[in-house]
Design a protein that fits this description.
31% of the residues lie in helices and 28% in strands. The protein has eight helices and eleven strands. It has helices at residues 16-27, 39-43, 60-64, 82-94, 107-115, 124-137, 172-176, 225-237; strands spanning 8-12, 31-36, 51-54, 73-76, 100-103, 120-122, 141-146, 151-157, 178-191, 196-203, 218-224. The two termini are 41 Å apart.
Length: 247
């Protein structure tokens, strides 16, 4: 069997955002070409990423010398200089780069980039605010595994209104639009030949309709992100969810 092709990305602009992204990708085993017009900006990451190059990315011949069209994607990480970002987008297009990802610092800049057919636009400040808002609004959400921009597998503390109910009494799929995968439960077991006890976390397995949900259970669920938000809000409102996720 042949070895899998190693992903490689060209990152342009090594400010705080670009440098952090470059280092994170490199630590995940991805080949990173870090580009900046300042050698000083490249100094801190030169020993972590595959390669660093000091050049002006608005100059087409300079980027062409790096065979940038052969990379899986070019990521423009520049923040404040939006005019420079637009120039680099033009250069990358002229060089035949298939996938361009661009950072925007304002929603107006993101709007302009999307109208230039840049489908992948990063808005770090907006994304950070969204994640914080979700974290604060969904305190009962324990862990999440994002499968796409809309769907995820998540661990949720059992809502109070479900405690003592059988799984079959709660219509997870049709009423809440989520799928119950399993239940994590902490149980107290004897330890040291019965002279002490310890708490052990175990999986209930595939829940059956007769499985009773207990206080402090963790439900492992699959569904649309909006469905989880409504599910957790319903714990406070004691209401049911009659609407599916918006498409």
């Amino acid at each position: 069997m042949g070895t899998a092709k190693k992903e490689k990305y060209a990152l342009i602009g090594m400010g705080d955002f670009g440098a952090q992204l470059a280092v994170t990708l490199a630590k995940k085993g991805i080949e990173v070409l870090a580009i900046d017009s300042s050698m000083e900006q490249l100094e801190d990451i030169k020993d972590v990423v595959e390669r660093t190059v000091c050049l002006d990315a608005t100059e087409e011949k300079a980027l062409e010398s790096q065979a940038i069209e052969e990379f899986d994607a070019a990521i423009i990480c520049i923040g404040d200089e939006f005019e420079e970002t637009l120039l680099i987008v033009t250069v990358l297009r002229n060089l035949g780069v298939r996938r361009i990802i661009a950072r925007a610092t304002t929603t107006r800049h993101a709007y302009i980039l999307r109208h230039l057919d840049i489908e992948e636009v990063i808005l770090p400040a907006v994304d950070a605010a969204y994640r914080l808002a979700n974290k604060l609004a969904m305190q009962d959400q324990v862990n999440r595994l994002e499968l796409s921009s809309d769907y995820e597998i998540t661990e949720v503390r059992v809502p109070q209104q479900f405690v003592g109910k059988k799984v079959g009494e709660v219509n997870f799929r049709d009423e809440y639009h989520v799928v119950l995968i399993t239940i994590k439960r902490v149980e107290t077991q004897p330890h040291f030949w019965g002279m002490a006890t310890r708490e052990v976390e175990r999986l209930v397995g595939v829940p059956i309709p007769e499985t009773v949900m207990e206080k402090d259970d963790i439900l492992l669920l699959f569904g649309h992100r909006e469905a989880f938000e409504r599910l957790l809000r319903s714990d406070n409102n004691e209401g049911s969810l009659n609407e599916g996720p918006e498409e």
